[in-house]
Design goal:
This protein has 334 residues and is mainly alpha-helical. It contains 13 helices and one strand. α1 packs antiparallel against α10. The longest helix has 28 residues. It holds the Pfam family EamA.
Amino acid sequence: MTSPTASPAPVALRPGDLTLTASAVPQLPTSNVAPVTTPPPSAPRPGKGSAFTGIALTVTACAFFCLLDTGSKYVGAVLPLLMALWLRYALQSIFTLGWGLAQSGVDIFRTTHPRFQVMRAALFCSSNACAMMSLRYLPLAEFTAVVAMTPLAMTLVAALWLRQPVSPLRWVLVAMGFIGTVVIIRPGGANFSGGALVWPLLQLAANTAYQIVSSQMAGKERPLTTQIYTSLLALVLTTASLPWFWQMPDTAALWLGALAMGVGSTIGHLMLLKAYEHAKPATISPFLYSQIPFAVFSGWLLYGHIPDHWAVLGMVAIAVGGALSAWLSVRESR
């Protein structure tokens, strides 16, 4: 993850959907983004409220993201993948668009970087598709922990691809997160082979690319505008496949799962956006890992799954590594 300065408004990010904050790796360069001649209107200034309120909103957002993943796990296991994604994007677009129009009217559609909006939406779809496939093989808690590796994966990209300097301590944290992921997945084991191994790693790669593009856009677009374009463009991309995959939910449980996806994604993102208005990304970032215990509880309550001691150890390693990385970003920015 990157460390945006205090002035730009960060794009709302997290682990399971693509919405982690960008605050755990050195600042990624923005030289490939065209300079903005006219600043986006009404861009909120982050970190100008109560830190406690920001933290409370972040934890609540993580609870809704867990609701999103819970619904995705059920619906994605019953409906065709693209049909399940279309349902999520349709509901998310209705809710997000309604909120945006109520806040700013048609001006909410004003964007200065349409090319990046399309790129972000395409990566969003790819990440979500891999996530739904992963949830067919992995329990909620283990899936959430693997996705939480995204900030540390961005450190690796910053060092190897973007040639950013990375301190030895950061490399230790990356190694800690990698070991935690291996402990959770346990490649070659009886329960984690084939799709259970491939899809989470593909999702991690897609989500890391998504977060990098999001970090490039931070402060250059209103976060809600970006969320609307991402939802609508993802809906358009999946609509093209409907003639081959159309299958409407035919049970109340499926509709409830689809509603959980739409409501969880919309409210989770909006709450995270509000959290950034109260607290800085470095303050919020460690609390994004609260989604892991929410996932453990949801997996136990709905599916009767309790992570074994090795999985718990891996989750702790990833969460501690991510939280320490966020703390290190604060220290290095001083």
